[in-house]
Amino acid sequence: MELRQLRYFVAIVDHGSLSRAALVLHVAQPALTQQLRQLEEELGVQLLHRSAQGVLSTDAGKIFYEHAQAILKQVADARSAVAQSAERPSGSVTLGLPHSISGALALPLLTAARAQYPEITLQLTEELTGNLSDQLKSGRVNLAVLFDDGQLAQFATTPLVEEELRFICRADATYAQGEQALTLAQTLKTTLILPGLQHGVRPRIESVARQAGLVLDQVIEINSIAILKSAILADMGATILPSAPVLDELERGAMHSHRIHSPSISRTVVLCASKNIPLTNAAAAVSRLVQQVSAQLCAGDTWPGATAIAGGTSS
């Protein structure tokens, strides 16, 4: 198996056509077809379905595509690491952010990166936390912001902030009329709209509730912040989230946020890197920048409900 075969295969999938991929790669289509056939023969599976309309990945092709992308990225990172200077880092860095964090962190981080490291191309990808963990393990992202659920031992981690979770509902909902704060037991009596068990805030809420002898009985699972917000505004239920993802709705009065007590709930936001794949100088610079920007946002009260964790160190 050769790197060019991986590049060819990824290009074919990305462009959905052998002919278009051949044009982009400046390779004759018969040669491209031959390399694809050799790759399929070596793997012993069909990677693509061919038709007059183009090509589609088989199930095996979809799996191989993810691995091919990760391998090609690691090769590019290795070349960049050799070439770049520690004093003037350059190259491409991919940082994964959960949906519930990107609203607070993404734009300030992009602005700071452009100002401090103009020769670094910072690529932000917004994903569910479970997906980000898998991408970090495979090397498809260099860094990822995740939540400490006790399952991060496989990564090098740096604590960033402690983020308060609050009960959030439509402004005119009857769940919490006149109440500034609610007990956790009170919040769990409502229909809650939450991500699935493997994503975001859900594991943390389940853990705190279990320790308090409580259970979540009425849950609507939605793994999209945009759809979750629409469901709240449709009065299908309330949620337990940090304030940052619904800040616009809170500021314009469409939603209300209530503190939770007895017990309160928070989550630890951490920056994660692979223990097996070394960081390039550019990725190390972005890692430091994420820590710096997070602390500045907390100090300026522009990351609602978040408190910087002083002296966070990688493990």
Task: Give a verbal description of the structure.
- The mean pLDDT is 89.
- It is built from 11 helices and 14 strands.
- Helix 1 (3-15) crosses helix 2 (18-25).
- It folds into 3 domains: 3-74, Winged helix-like DNA-binding domain superfamily/Winged helix DNA-binding domain (Arc Repressor Mutant, subunit A, Orthogonal Bundle); 91-159 and 272-301, Periplasmic binding protein-like II (D-Maltodextrin-Binding Protein, domain 2, 3-Layer(aba) Sandwich); 166-264, D-Maltodextrin-Binding Protein, domain 2 (3-Layer(aba) Sandwich).
- The protein has 315 residues and is an alpha/beta fold.
- The chain has helices spanning 3-15, 18-25, 29-43, 59-83, 99-116, 129-138, 184-187, 202-211, 225-233, 247-251, 281-299; strands at residues 48-51, 54-57, 91-98, 120-127, 143-147, 155-164, 166-170, 181-183, 192-194, 219-221, 239-241, 255-261, 266-274, 306-308.
- Residues 1-58 form the HTH lysR-type domain.
In brief, what are we looking at here?
The chain is an alpha/beta fold and 315 residues long.
CATH architect. name of the largest domain: 3-Layer(aba) Sandwich
Please indicate the count of domains. 3
Order the strands across the largest sheet as they lie in space: 4-3-5-13-6-14
The CATH topology annotation of the largest domain reads as D-Maltodextrin-Binding Protein, domain 2
What value does the Rg take, in angstroms?
23 Å
Query: Quick one: overall form?
Result: globular
List the helices and strands and how they pair.
Blueprint: H1 3-15, H2 18-25, H3 29-43, E1 48-51, E2 54-57, H4 59-83, E3 91-98, H5 99-116, E4 120-127, H6 129-138, E5 143-147, E6 155-164, E7 166-170, E8 181-183, H7 184-187, E9 192-194, H8 202-211, E10 219-221, H9 225-233, E11 239-241, H10 247-251, E12 255-261, E13 266-274, H11 281-299, E14 306-308
Parallel strand pairs: 3-4, 3-5, 8-12, 9-10
Antiparallel strand pairs: 1-2, 5-13, 6-13, 6-14, 7-11, 7-12
Helix pairs in contact: 1-2, 1-4, 5-11
